[in-house]
Write a structure and sequence with these properties.
Layout (H helix, E strand, L loop, with lengths): L2 E14 L2 E14 L3 E5 L6 H8 L7 E6 L7 H4 E4 L11 H5 L1 H5 L4 H11 L18 H14 L4 E5 L7 H18 L2 E6 L2 H7 L2 E5 L6 E6 L14 H13 L4
Parallel strand pairs: 3-7, 3-8, 5-6, 6-7
Antiparallel strand pairs: 1-2, 1-4, 8-9
Helix pairs in contact: 8-9
The structure holds adenosine-5'-triphosphate and magnesium ion.
Adenosine-5'-triphosphate binds next to strand 1, strand 2 and helix 1.
Length: about 250
């Protein structure tokens, strides 16, 4: 399998008001083509910073970041990023929001709009293409943000806690739905979450991070069959994995 993202011993210290804040203490990880990989760790440990480094928004102090196995590859060529805040543009309709990346890429707009219209049902947004973000529920807004990320047509999606603000029922539905989207498009997904169950339910592999400065504490293969189904989370093999992750997070 081609390696799409490779981090080797990445170190980052922020300096705020003269104070040093060691944030990444040597992080090594990989995401392969088509894989679903999750990153889980305590709040403030440096998860979003890892995504910002992968996207080139933050420069590491040292360590290696290689995309697509080629040193010259730029983030914009292979990565589409959905940041922790959904950042929809409130003055644009849903349709105009989801084609934003294509517009920035200088793509044919009519073609992008036609493609977006076709995808509206899959994202549960049919009939809302002319609405504005403020008129939608939290779950719908997250689907708009995801649709925009998917429509950018990059091989790797970085999703930073996309379901963090949703209620438990919506969240579980969105997880199932995300697996369908992932399956349909075949992109790699690199996913940040605080939720152990969510990480295991979705992923092929999970990296558990230590508190800041983050290091990989546990790297776990989630050897559960697909398609995943909801009740899997009650089965013994699932609980065993959950226990391992909770131990690595020092949850009691
Ligand atoms: N651009 C920046 N400049 C200075 N400090 C930063 C910057 N980005 C992040 N930090 C600091 O680095 C630490 C890690 O932040 P980060 O957002 O990566 O954590 P996180 O694991 O994503 O947290 P959460 O789970 O709460 O989203 C925090 O203490 C934060 O204040
Ligand atoms: Mg974060």
């Amino acid at each position: 399998m081609a390696v799409k993202i490779m981090l080797e011993n990445v170190i980052k210290t922020f300096i705020i008001d003269g104070e040093t804040l060691p944030t990444l203490g040597g992080v090594s990880l990989q995401v392969g083509a088509g894989e679903f990989v999750s990153l889980i760790g305590p709040s403030g440990c440096g998860k979003s910073t890892i995504f910002n480094i992968v996207c080139g928004l933050v420069r590491p102090d040292s360590g290696k970041v290689v995309l697509d196995g080629q040193p010259g590859k730029t983030p914009a060529e292979i990565i589409s990023y959905m940041p922790q805040k959904d950042l929809l543009l409130p003055w644009r309709t849903i349709l105009r929001n989801v084609i934003l990346a294509r517009e920035i890429q200088g793509d044919n707009l009519a073609k992008a709009i036609a493609e977006a219209r076709q995808l509206l049902p899959l994202f549960g947004l049919q009939g809302f293409e002319n609405s504005y973000p403020a008129e939608l529920s939290g779950g719908m807004r997250q689907r708009v943000a995801l649709m925009r990320t998917v429509l950018a047509r990059r091989e790797v999606l970085l999703l930073d806690e996309p379901f963090g603000a949703l209620d438990a029922i919506t969240r579980v539905n969105m997880q199932q739905w995300l697996l369908e989207v992932w399956h349909k498009f075949g992109y790699a997904v690199f996913f940040i979450t605080h939720d152990v169950e969510e990480a295991l339910f979705l992923s092929d592999r999970v990296y558990v991070l230590s508190p800041r400065p983050a290091r990989v504490r546990l790297h776990l293969e989630v050897d559960l069959p697909r398609p995943r189904y909801r009740k899997m989370v009650t089965e013994e093999r699932f609980l065993k994995l959950k226990n391992q992750v909770m131990d690595a997070l020092e949850m009691v």
